[in-house]
UniProtKB/TrEMBL annotation:
<comment type="pathway">
    <text>Cofactor biosynthesis; thiamine diphosphate biosynthesis.</text>
</comment>
<keyword id="KW-0808">Transferase</keyword>
<dbReference type="InterPro" id="IPR029056">
    <property type="entry name" value="Ribokinase-like"/>
</dbReference>
<dbReference type="GO" id="GO:0005829">
    <property type="term" value="C:cytosol"/>
</dbReference>
<dbReference type="GO" id="GO:0008902">
    <property type="term" value="F:hydroxymethylpyrimidine kinase activity"/>
</dbReference>
<dbReference type="InterPro" id="IPR004399">
    <property type="entry name" value="HMP/HMP-P_kinase_dom"/>
</dbReference>
<keyword id="KW-0547">Nucleotide-binding</keyword>
<dbReference type="GO" id="GO:0005524">
    <property type="term" value="F:ATP binding"/>
</dbReference>
<dbReference type="GO" id="GO:0008972">
    <property type="term" value="F:phosphomethylpyrimidine kinase activity"/>
</dbReference>
<dbReference type="InterPro" id="IPR013749">
    <property type="entry name" value="PM/HMP-P_kinase-1"/>
</dbReference>
<dbReference type="GO" id="GO:0009228">
    <property type="term" value="P:thiamine biosynthetic process"/>
</dbReference>
<dbReference type="GO" id="GO:0009229">
    <property type="term" value="P:thiamine diphosphate biosynthetic process"/>
</dbReference>
<keyword id="KW-0418">Kinase</keyword>
<feature type="domain" description="Pyridoxamine kinase/Phosphomethylpyrimidine kinase">
    <location>
        <begin position="29"/>
        <end position="277"/>
    </location>
</feature>
<protein>
    <recommendedName>
        <fullName>hydroxymethylpyrimidine kinase</fullName>
        <ecNumber>2.7.1.49</ecNumber>
    </recommendedName>
</protein>
<keyword id="KW-0067">ATP-binding</keyword>
<dbReference type="Pfam" id="PF08543">
    <property type="entry name" value="Phos_pyr_kin"/>
</dbReference>
Amino acid sequence: MSTSMSNSTAVPTVSSASTPIVLTIAGSDSGGGAGIQADIKAISATGGYACSVITAITAQNTLGVSAIFPIPLKHVEKQLDAVFTDLNIIAVKVGMLADAEIIKIVAAKIKQYQPAFLVIDPVMVATSGDLLLQASAINTLKSELLPLADIITPNLPEGAALIGSEVPNNEGSMEAMISGLRQLGAKTVLLKGGHLEKDENSNDLLIFPDNVHHLTAKRINTRNTHGTGCTLSSAIASYLAQGYDLLQAVQLAKQYISQAIAHADELDIGQGHGPVNHFFNGHADVS
């Protein structure tokens, strides 16, 4: 099934008087374009309330990452307990987890507090192609955390790393990954096709247990795409927290990130790959 992003008219299937609180568990980006900073911007821009647990502090700008300082495990745990015991967290987005021990703590706390929705952006592969997680940590991610997820959002290198395949170079080889990705245990998988840069459109596969939705949006020619994965996954979590069903949440998030990329060149940030424009419209209405 193919779905265009230009005509989404989704409305929430669940209404709630409570504030849609979304927790992001990820690393901090000092340049403000990705990580915790992008997550908070995306959640806020799409109508949610963002809280955070920081797993690592990066020294980072639009030109790259120069240092990473993992937060001590005990403090990650204390942050998780602090927010979960006080705030009515409806959805959780998980991004950068530095090592296997942090993955185990996050998985244990998700099981303990049982938020309604869990969105995992498996940040595993740098833009350079280098793996950001050791093999043991990838195995822990696959065994402990991914099976808890309502949706995981790998890009093509991350999806390939998760199932041990070659990185796809066309839509046919993307579709060949479907069976392997289903076996990871998450309820759904959004396989993002943004790395197929020769394609006119940016095509993603939303993989359910018994069907696949093809989501397409016009590819936008800009170098300012820093933080797109963080932004998309956070927007999905935000829309889930507001009562949209999973397909609607993904459709709206895809529409939101497409607009944020389309307006990215209106910003003048740094000398390298700048961020998307999270507040392109000034408020949460992306219709």
